[in-house]
Specification:
globular, seven-stranded mixed sheet, alpha+beta
Length: 139
């Protein structure tokens, strides 16, 4: 059985504060967590790794979002084209709404969204332990 843990919102805010690319961490449900740890010992070991990965994501948010964005996402039925007028504008407006670490393999996942033009939908991204994009889809 695996265990998971939500990261304290105040700790996330300390790392993400000032970044326009991260949504506030106090929304429910908490989108900042460690998942798939084998046990409490593995969970404890993953905490520092999580914070390091989050710091990296904050420092490199523009590049990570641009690397995950696909022009065809603008054609998704859930995009409000009255609020965003081009794929480039859409990409510039996306924010991390969550950030998750898979303790088994060090991969990081995130949901990118913007409630003003992608309300109720998101772009799910997964990067491996070396920040290579492994999957991306819009839901």
């Amino acid at each position: 059985m695996s265990v998971s843990e939500d990261i304290a919102p105040w700790l996330v805010r300390e790392i993400t504060k000032g970044s326009r690319r991260f949504a506030g961490p106090f929304a429910e449900p908490n989108g900042y967590s460690i998942v798939e740890a084998e046990d409490e010992v593995a969970l404890l070991a993953a905490r520092g790794r999580y914070l390091d990965r989050l710091r990296y994501a904050v420092a490199n948010a523009d590049a990570l979002i641009a690397g995950a964005f696909r022009r065809e996402f603008y054609d998704f039925y859930g995009v409000d084209r009255d609020k965003v007028h081009s794929p480039e504008e859409m990409c510039r407006g996306l924010v991390f709404d969550s950030f998750v670490l898979d303790a088994r393999n060090g991969s990081a996942g995130a949901c990118l969204t913007n409630s003003s033009f992608l309300f109720g939908h998101f772009i799910e991204c997964w990067w491996d332990g070396d920040w290579r994009l492994r999957s991306v889809c819009i839901c």
